[in-house]
Every structure is written in structure tokens, then in C-alpha cells.
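Crash report, auto-generated. Payload:
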Amino acid sequence: MSSGNFNNTNASVRPWFERLDRIDRRWIFLLMFLAVAGPILWIGVTGKTLPEAPTLAARAVFEEIDHLPARTLVLISFDYDPASAGELQPMATSLVRQCAAKNLRMVFIALWPLGNQVAQQTIQDVIRDDYPALKEGDDFVNMGYQAGNEAVMKLLLTDFAKAFPKDSRGEATSNIPMLKDVKMVSDFPLLISISAGYPGSKEWVQYVISAYNEKMNFVTGCTGVSAPQLYPYFPQQIAGLLGAIKGAAEYESMVNASLAVDGVATPPKYLQAQRRMGPQLVAHLLMVGLIIVGNMIFFARKRRGAA
Amino acid sequence: MKRIIPMWIAIIGGFAMMLSSFVPLAESAGEMFADVFNVVAAIAFVLGAGSLAKQHLEKLSRRDAGWGYSIITLGSFLITLFIGLGKIGIHPNEQFPQAPYSGSNEMEGSAFGWIYEYMITPLTSTMFALLAFFVASAAFRAFRAKNTEAILLLVTAFIVLLGRTFAGVVLTGWFPDWASGLRLENLSIYVMQVFNTAGNRAIMIGIALGVAATGLRILFGIDRSWLGGGDA
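Recovered output after restart:
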């Protein structure tokens, strides 16, 4: 008898929970693939999204930006890279869209090496495509990436131009019209960080917001794994918090509602977060199902062992 | 000398940075050390590149397991370095049309941008997306109610997993207003803002005290383990 036949014979007499426990993990991978792919296809075909009820933390982000007068300077730090773009890009897009629609002057920086490219892409997708009247240098500027993590933040406390001597085009900071009155980070009434980890929101709180909590407000969007570490700072140091794609979807729905025009459909690029809540729903249900089945196996085995 | 000079640099720099937060006169010293840190951080990139090349070249010469991946790593590194430094496909800056290398690597249509858009973005996104599959497999095999702590963890996981999606609204949205606190979406927020915040604050305070204690030990030259081995 071959070893394959021997195993098959054994498998047929094993109790159900043993067989289920030894299931090839590729079946679980397949289930997860279907759980994610199904809703993506369904939402892609129908264009329908699930309704969102914004939480306090997401509402606070929207209101912080909404209350700012036009032409206010806003510092937006892109502290993530393409690896987390799936989770963070929708909120980045909506944040920049709301700032552009409010005619705020946006200064983009990046503390992650690839954050500059992500910022460029967002500027292209939102500002250049949909707000072409905004002029680089007057209404927005991308200062690019600066190495040094917290040291850059420390420098920003005293000298913005020293931390970012030129923008991503190579233009000296002193020659950029919108930065003429900017001496230090506290000259920005609002700081926004879209953060995937270190350096990011936590470091902004520790090095910048703790020093200038009275002068400037801070709102942030972060990945699901880092959200629990940031809740302790909400709402004192962090005025508004977008946690993962759920927070992004809540915020996105508010921005879309505020900028909706009768008879004009919202472009798909401004629905990315809400669209991703569909796959998240089914994937979470699958996870719950898998945990329940796993525990059924555990208790069945325990009972068999005790009998 | 190998240990004493770095130790004094750390002590002087550390005290300058610390005092700059409290004493206005020390602010400029703190700024200077922050500048120095930026220069050192830039040099660290070169050091990191050298270390990467050394490690993979050694692996290649020894024909260690997986040496084929080292070829890919080194090849990708050298090609990206060449394209980045050579500014391949980049037009001169409009302000300096005579200077061929005045354009930025971020310019649209550059080879560097092409690498970013068509290689780095899909590769890193794929790596991140794979997490979902492994988390599902781990949830099935390891998330078992073995004891009280594990049961608490399981209940919390269910609340957050369901409360962070529309499933929470469907399952518990019908609860009357007086019991709205028991709706899964509200319970999920409660777990995050109360239990999680309390636990995280305790951890953060503990870490902060540890960092302060270790920092002081380094500043006073008591802890020298960060200097590594070598001659005094």
C-alpha cells in the first residue's frame, strides 16, 4: 500500500473535527480571496456602496478643516509609502480634496522616503485634475522628502526653511511666495499627518504638538494597527482621528456630501474608501466564521479527550 | 579613544538637545545638533547601501542558501541607483535649461518614476495584501478560547471585527435608543476609547519612564553598551 493510500484510509476514519483541523490552509486562502474579490466585483459592477455613520473622531477631522478660513496654511505630512496606500490613500485623497475645495493653502512634506511620490500622485489626482486653478507655489507646494525622522520635526519647531530648504522642483524655500511668512511649524494653524507608523502621528504629537498644542491643531489618519496607539491622544493632542479604511469611509462620505452637486455623480476616485468597506465586511465575517469553526474544533477535541 | 569620543559626543549632544527644550539660550545648540543629526542620517544611507552590498556579495561568494535572491537584490539596487543618480529620462529644470541634470527625479515620465509606479507600488502593495490571507489562516488555527484571557480577547475581537463594518449596524442597529450603547458599532468605539486607551496609556507611561531612565544612564556615561565592543 502506498503512503498516499494509507493516509487516505486514515483520513476517512478520522472524526470531522480532526479532518477540519488538518484542512490545507490553501482552502482558507481561497475563501479569503473569494471574500475580497466577490464584493470588489459586485461594487465595481453596481457602483453601490454601504452607508456610513460618521463617528466623533471622523467628524472632528472634517470639522477642523471645515472651520478654517480660506487661504489658511495647512501642513500635510505624507508619512507612508505604497505598501499602506491601500488603506491610507483614500483618506489622503479626501483630505486634500476638502482642503482644495476650501481654498486652503497646502504645504506637503514627507518623512518617509517614498512619501514624496505618494504626495505627488495625490497632488496630480486631486489638485491638478480637479482644481487646476490652484497654482503651485501660491496655493500648494510639495517640499518633498527629508531624512532624519524626529530631527526634522525638531528643526521644524525653530526653522522651517532649514528643515526643508527647497521644494521638490528644486525651488528655494525663500523664493516660494506662499511660504514668505512661514518661520516655523507653529505658523501652520493645522497639521495633518497621514501615517503608517514610524515616524508618524505619534512622533508629531510627542515632538511638535506637545510644544505647540495651544497654537496649532493636529488631525491624523492612520492604519488599523496603529490606531489603538493613537486613541490615548484623542481629543486633546489629536483633534480628529481617522482609523484605517473605516475612518476613511466615514470621512469620505462627509466630504462627498458637503461637495455634492445635484445631478452630478461623485467620481469613483472619491469613493475608494466606501467601496473598500464591502470587501472589509465580507472578510471580517469570514474571519469571525473561521474563529467560530476553529473553536468548535477545539471544544470537540477537548470533549473527545475528556470522554 | 574609539569609545570615549563617541561617548562624549553623545553626552554633549544629548544634554544640548534636552536643554534646548527648557532653556532658550540652548535653543541654537539644539538646532546645531539637529542639523548634525540630519547630516549623519544622510551618511547613514551610504553606510546602509555599503552594508547591503557587502552582505549580499558575501552571500553570493559563499553560495549560501537563497543566493539567487541576492543577485536580484543587488541588481535592483544597482539599477535603481544608476537611474536615480544618472537622472535617466529627466528633462532640465525650466529655470536652468542649460543644466542637463537640473531636473528632479520626481518629474513626470522619468525612469525613476516608472520604477516607483510599476515596480515598487505593486510589489509593496502585494506584500501588504498577503497579510489578509495569513491573518485568516492564523485566526482559524490559533484563536482558541483556551482560558479566561483568551475568551476576553475573542469577545473583543468579535466586537471590533463586526463593529467596524456594516455587519454591526445590521445585527444590532434595531436596539432601542436606551440600549444604543450596546450596539456593536458603539461597543467597538467604547472598546477602542476606554479599554484600549487605558491599556495603551499604561504601556506608554511605562515605556516613557524606561526611555528616560535609559537616556539618563547614557547621558551620564553609566550605560555604554550602545558603543559596542572595541578598544577603549
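Post-recovery validation: Residues 143-232 of chain B form one domain.
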